[in-house]
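Input sequence (332 aa), recorded before submission:
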Amino acid sequence: MKFASPWSLVLLLVLPLWLWWERRSAQRGGLKFSSVTVARSLSSFWATLGPSLLLMLRGATLVLFIVALARPQLGRSESKIKTEGIDIVLVIDISGSMQAMDYEKGGQRESRIDAVKDVVREFIRARPNDRIGMVVFGTHAYVASPLTLDHDWLERNLDRIRIGLVEGNTAIGAGIGTGVNRLRDTKAKSKVIVLLTDGGENVKNPPALEAAKAAKEFNVRVYTIGAGSQGMAPMPIHDRAGNLLGYQPIQADLDEDLLKQIAAATGGQYFRAADVASLKKTYAQIDTMEKQKVETVAYEEWKELFPWFLTPGLGCLVLAVTLEHTRLRRLP
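Predicted structure, token format:
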């Protein structure tokens, strides 16, 4: 409930002053009888409680009239959000080199894939109104999640991603092509692929630049992210039981020129993410660049309640006036 004219309630502060004045006026009244016989004939109820009842009716009248003047309203408000949809497909490299431990978290080594999963999770949570899908690739590409607004389910699929789900090569073109197939028939006004890889293209089925041309044809913008440090990176070595034996250095083979060409061909942008901080910054920048238009339309429906206070107020007033001129009439 709300009041359309809440300032009218300030008049309630005058009631104590009015009550004081009424009691003071009542004390001045009086009537002398020549005989107590007449006084005894008066009803004891009206003689003792009548003035208090009259004062209560007047006070109730004032309170109810003031509340009615403030126009109490009962209803509901509703907001509808209209968005210009953005469909996003996250294309993530899960080839063997994504196990390299050249990222750090809390002072501890972290693999590239684990760091990427943490940052991608934050990116998903920052865009609750967008449909987001996910494609992973190695030698081949497959859909880890179709486009969806169920981001809890999307995050559960993200958690399931691990190295070894696909062969260990790097088919960048296949990743882009699969992402484009997810977006080609959608009605979204903006279609985006965010591609992350740490390697060069060693499987060209199709070639990455051909896939980029297809993305351009379907108005899909591709942002590319080069992950991993420059030079040598430590690759963990495990025994058959899964125990860590040590680390073997591997040479980074990231093809930055290719990633830049892919982004340029589709109207996107290339980012370098050599550590966790730059990885977070990259996804934050893409989040800012691909903001959707949000239009909020508010609806309000309120029912006036002042008659519920005005009617009993009038009833109290009529009763008070009636009693004042009949049973509780005062002689001058």
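Checked by second reader. Residues 44-69 form the longest helix (26 residues).
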